[in-house]
């Protein structure tokens, strides 16, 4: 085939490849603030653990060990234990190493020529009579030995291999940020689970105290009914309240055991070996909360960086699909020695060499290449939309956490007021009871109401601690500082 005719076949495919429009990069959602009304400081609940005002410092960096802001050595030890022993992190770490090795293997296979050595031996025999060549009987059977070295290299003139390596690099980056995301999620899960465990333990104890008080109230009511000092309806009402309080205790105990099981698994242990107990009194509310700028959030959240890596990988695959339209040039060489005796194999008398070149250009594939590229472009567009969605969800997570902390502070303030008033009522009732002004039943009722207010206060405190951890997680958790150390 003449060179002019060959060019005539190749030119349409090359021109078609050159006519593809470039990929459109995704538009990154922009925001100047997280919420419609900026939040600078939350309300305070004076005199209550965890009741201080929280101030949000815009632009302040987040420490890598962000859970240290709660000033609890027990919590620090628990998170470190989980990070050191979690099977989830072991899986993510192994996937990262696998991606690194895949990239290394493919880089080595494409950067340098491929060199292979081969040694083979054959034994040939045949009946020479039917062949009419009686002289072969003196030669057969024949031993044949072959040793050769082959070298080949495919040139990457049109970027197919380069894009393939780009896709593998993006996979490695994805796995790296997947590991960051797993560490962040694990630390946040441990912190929130530990806070919930401490709150549940305190709620179980307070509920048991309420049950004890109500048992005494029921006994008093029953005694009063016997002597005609109380109506039957009052006794039934007291028993009903006692039963309702008792019914709430199993759910609290179940939740406490379940969260302890969860903490054990987080730290790589069976549920039968939970970690040491943590108490809310051991925690301190972070008074100053770092608040990254919205413009920095996309670079800090591991899930957004994962989506960005997948987007680059999808773009590289479009490049691979485009490069498949172009010709591929491969040069090869082979040299070796052939001999009828193994001892003569390296003598060089039977040496040979081959030099070759091949040029492959797709001409007609029934629309396969065009369809594959359109598929790759569609996958890129999906990845672009997923990246935009990840950024928007990041903004939403931060906004939700900020509003939750605002509401938590107000709720804690009101719960603390209710608890303070309940304690004042109990102290008044206690003084009147000592003076004979109220009955023991009324004193017990005032104490029960105090315990109920304390129960609500514990939950409000735990919610504020947990939502503080949620904000730090939503902001990315400071993994970039861990990497920089």
List keywords for this structure.
about 475 residues, alpha+beta, Outer membrane efflux proteins (OEP), two-stranded parallel ribbon, 10 helices, 6 strands, elongated
Can you characterise this structure?
- This protein is an alpha+beta fold.
- It has one domain (12-113, 157-325, 370-484): Outer membrane efflux proteins (OEP).
- Helices cover 60% and strands 11% of the residues.
- It contains ten helices and six strands; from the N terminus they run αβααββααβααββααα.
- The chain has helices spanning 3-18, 73-85, 87-111, 160-226, 232-266, 294-300, 302-323, 368-434, 440-474, 479-484, and strands at residues 55-58, 114-124, 142-154, 288-291, 328-339, 351-360.
- A four-stranded antiparallel β-sheet has the order 2-3-5-6, with no helix packed on it. It has a two-stranded parallel sheet with strand order 1-4.
- The radius of gyration is 38 Å and the shape is elongated.
- The model is unreliable at 1-17 (pLDDT under 50).
């Amino acid at each position: 085939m003449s060179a002019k005719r060959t060019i005539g076949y190749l030119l349409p495919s090359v021109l078609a490849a050159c006519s593809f429009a470039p990929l459109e990069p995704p538009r990154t959602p922009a925001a100047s603030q997280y919420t419609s009304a900026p939040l600078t400081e939350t309300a305070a609940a004076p005199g209550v653990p965890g009741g201080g005002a929280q101030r949000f410092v815009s632009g302040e960096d987040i420490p890598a060990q962000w859970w240290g802001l709660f000033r609890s050595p027990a919590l620090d030890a628990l998170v470190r234990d989980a990070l050191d022993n979690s099977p989830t992190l072991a899986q993510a770490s192994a996937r990262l190493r696998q991606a690194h090795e895949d990239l290394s293997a493919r880089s080595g296979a494409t950067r340098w020529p491929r060199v292979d050595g081969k040694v083979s031996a054959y034994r040939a025999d045949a009946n020479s009579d039917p062949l009419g060549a009686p002289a072969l009987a003196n030669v057969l059977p024949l031993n044949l030995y072959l040793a050769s070295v082959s070298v080949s290299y495919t040139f990457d003139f049109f970027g197919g291999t380069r894009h393939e390596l780009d896709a593998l690099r993006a996979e490695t980056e994805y796995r790296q940020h997947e590991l960051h995301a797993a560490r962040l999620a694990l630390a946040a899960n441990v912190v929130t689970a530990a806070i919930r465990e401490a709150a549940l333990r305190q709620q179980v104890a307070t509920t048991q105290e309420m049950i004890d008080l109500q048992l005494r109230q029921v006994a008093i009511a029953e005694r009063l009914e016997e002597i005609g000092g109380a109506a039957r309806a009052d006794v039934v009402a007291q028993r009903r309240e006692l039963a309702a309080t008792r019914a709430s205790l199993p759910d609290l105990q179940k939740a406490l055991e379940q969260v302890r099981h969860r903490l054990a698994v987080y730290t790589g242990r069976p549920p039968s070996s939970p970690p040491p107990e943590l108490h809310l009194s051991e925690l301190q509310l972070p008074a100053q909360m770092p608040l990254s700028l919205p413009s920095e959030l996309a670079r800090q959240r591991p899930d957004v960086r994962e989506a960005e890596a997948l987007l680059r990988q999808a773009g590289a695959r479009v490049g691979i699909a485009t490069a498949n339209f172009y010709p591929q040039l491969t040069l090869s060489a082979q040299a070796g020695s052939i001999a009828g005796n193994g001892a003569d194999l390296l003598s060089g008398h039977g040496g040979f060499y081959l030099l070759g070149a091949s040029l492959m250009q797709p001409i007609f594939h029934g629309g396969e290449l065009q369809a594959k590229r359109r598929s790759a472009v569609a996958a890129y567009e999906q990845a672009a939309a997923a990246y935009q969605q990840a950024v928007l969800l990041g903004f939403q997570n931060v906004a939700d956490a900020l509003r939750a902390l605002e509401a938590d502070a107000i709720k804690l303030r009101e719960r603390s007021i209710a608890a303070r008033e309940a304690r004042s009522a109990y102290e008044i009732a206690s003084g009147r009871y000592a003076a004979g002004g109220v009955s023991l039943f009324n004193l017990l009722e005032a104490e029960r109401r105090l315990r109920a207010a304390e129960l609500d206060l514990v939950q409000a405190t735990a919610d504020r601690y947990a939502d503080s951890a949620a904000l730090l997680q939503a902001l990315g958790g400071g993994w970039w500082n861990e990497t920089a150390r």
